[in-house]
Amino acid sequence: MTEQHTTVAQPSLDGLVDALDRIIDGGAAVAGDLIVSVDGIDLIRVDLRLLIAGIQGTEGATGS
Question: Is the model's pTM score more than 0.90?
Answer without folding.
Answer: no
